[in-house]
Amino acid sequence: MSGVGELYERNARFADGFDKGDLPLKPSLSMIILCCVDARVSPEHVAGVALGDALVIRTAGARVTDGAALEVRMLWTLMSMATGATPNLELVIISHTQCGMERFAVPEIAAKVTEIFGSSDVVDTYAIADVNEAVSTDIERLRADASMPRELKVSGHVYDIATGQLREVVATSTLG
Ligand SMILES: [Zn+2]
């Protein structure tokens, strides 16, 4: 069976007896989770995020790309328009150990990727030399972006692939 066929089989089992058809748009945890695309770190599994709990954005390395930053602003605006009030939304960035983006920090690989893409943009955006530092840098980047809502609460975390444990790297604070 093809990969997609497998998904349909699993969906049929999921939809059998489905009773979550009336969940509201607003996530129950008032949270946007930004995590890596890595198949080993889905927040549904590692942090028990259930249907209706959180908005989830995934980028390679959980990096705050231009697209991810725009997405956060857009979601903030959407929630603001939907409720007519300042959204009570928190951005939770979850990076992880053993990330594939660490490879882009290896000089020879970085040089090759830069050659393939014709610029250093990909390496500059995604490379992770130190996971704690990457999370801190991305949060500072959001803080320095005047277009981001000041009321947005942000925190940074690292999920350990080897132990299954999540640890805080940057405590929650508003971009203020
Ligand atoms: Zn990753």
Oligomer: single chain
With strands numbered from the N-terminus, the spatial order across the biggest sheet is: 2-1-3-4-5
Q: In the CATH classification, which architecture applies?
A: 3-Layer(aba) Sandwich
Give the ordered list of helices and strands: HEHEHEHHHEE
Number of continuous helical runs: 6
Distinct ligands, ions and cofactors found in the model: zinc ion
Name the shape in a single word. Answer: globular
Q: What would you say about this model in short?
A:
The protein is 38% helix and 19% strand. The chain has helices spanning 3-15, 43-46, 66-83, 107-117, 121-126, 131-144; strands at 31-36, 55-59, 90-96, 153-159, 166-174.
